[in-house]
Design brief:
It is a single chain. The protein has about 325 residues and is an alpha+beta fold. The protein folds into two domains: about 1-215, Jelly Rolls, CATH 2.60.120.10; about 220-325, Orthogonal Bundle (Arc Repressor Mutant, subunit A), CATH 1.10.10. It has twelve helices and twelve strands. The protein has helices at about 20-30, 130-140, 160-175, 185-205, 210-215, 220-235, 240-250, 250-265, 265-285, 295-300, 305-315, 320-325; strands at about 10-15, 35-40, 45-55, 55-65, 70, 80-85, 90, 95-100, 105, 115, 120-130, 155. The protein has a seven-stranded antiparallel sheet, sandwiched between helices. The chain has a five-stranded antiparallel sheet with strand order 2-5-10-7-8, covered by helices on one side. The longest helix has 19 residues, at about 265-285. The chain is globular, with a radius of gyration of 23 Å. The protein starts with 9 loop residues before the first strand and ends with a helix. The model is unreliable at about 1-5 (pLDDT under 50).
């Protein structure tokens, strides 16, 4: 069984000088229900778009050659707008929100917003599928959300966890647009998806902070057994902590605290330990010339050969290739 988690980045770049085509492209990406543009008269129209999609995530970088007002109705998904350069203003539910390097804006599915900005504004829009955020919230809290998830319209991102989340979003954008990105490996792509989606819930202010801040419930031994059995039966699977929490029928926080309490390590550390043990067994049993280190690493769920080799040497005191020769 491979480590393919079903996530493959899609990327595209375009420069549009026709306002009608630009409106169609932005509506397709950002607001399927409708979008209008009002460019400054007398200025040459130009819109540059760099976009990357990864499962429920879409990052869109934009550049302009003119001041612009854009009104979007019926947003698709949760929209987070960051600034790579310049300053813009968003009007959301009657309130004006400034967007610059220290401040971001958020809006939710179905909302209507208006953006006004000059030619120097370089926004980065992150759109997260509503179902993905709701599912992640249920995993983190251990229960489905009883009411709509709403983020604060204005987000201060100058320091702390919010600034860290913004760096993660920019890293996702950069890796997604790179031709030789690590995101070509589904295991790493799933990790990036989780960082962005869970990070939004853990790092930004929203309507369900109280549920996330509640103390974690104790982990029942039956839940621990279910998770441990799943890992040991299928270590090659690209399990996320959310997947493991779902298997144990518990929240992510209960899972993490329970593993630390009962096994002295995190769930991901335990998964890596089991994978290394399985790889060690396969290398000892393998025949040189008929088996390769890369094939063993892949079968055991390791997407990056260099990291596998370093972790293996750290645990067993020898390179994987040395173990393969010894087993011959």
């Amino acid at each position: 069984m491979s480590d393919d988690g079903g996530l493959r980045p899609q990327r595209w770049r375009t420069i549009l000088s026709d306002e009608g085509l630009a409106r169609q492209e932005l509506a397709r990406l950002l607001a399927p229900a409708g979008l209008t543009l009002d460019a400054a008269a007398g200025s040459g129209f130009r819109l540059g778009v760099d976009a990357v999609r990864l499962g429920p995530l879409l990052a869109v970088s934009m550049s302009f050659a003119m001041p612009l007002t854009a009104t979007m109705a019926g947003l698709g998904g949760y929209h987070f707008t960051l600034s790579d350069a310049g300053r813009g203003q968003l009007v959301h539910e009657g309130a004006r929100v400034e967007v610059d390097r220290g401040h971001a804006a958020a809006a939710g599915p179905g909302d209507a917003v208006t953006f006004r900005h000059g030619a120097d504004f370089r926004p980065l829009a992150l759109i997260v599928d509503e179902a993905a955020l709701r599912q992640e919230l249920a995993v983190l809290t251990g229960m489905p959300a009883a009411r709509r998830l709403r983020f604060a319209s204005s987000l201060t991102v100058t320091s702390g966890a919010a600034a860290s989340w913004c760096r993660t979003v920019r890293s996702f954008r950069a890796e997604g647009l790179a031709g030789d990105s690590l995101l070509q490996y589904p295991l790493i792509a799933e990790h990036m998806r989780h960082l962005v989606v869970a990070g939004a819930l853990l790092c930004l202010p929203h309507s369900h902070r109280a549920e996330l801040d509640q103390p974690a419930a104790p982990m029942h031994p039956a839940s621990l057994r279910r998770v441990v059995t799943a890992i040991e039966d299928r270590p090659e699977q690209p399990f996320s902590v959310g997947d493991l929490a779902a298997i144990g029928r518990i929240s992510v926080r209960t899972l993490q605290i329970g593993f630390q309490r009962h096994l002295g390590m995190s769930p991901t550390a335990y998964l890596r330990q089991v994978r290394l043990g399985r790889a060690h067994q396969l290398l000892l049993a393998g025949l040189q010339g008929q088996e390769t280190v890369a094939a063993v690493a892949h079968r055991c769920g390791f997407a990056h050969l260099g990291r596998f080799s370093r972790a293996y040497r750290q645990r067993y005191g020898a390179a994987p290739s040395e173990t393969l020769r010894l087993g011959d």
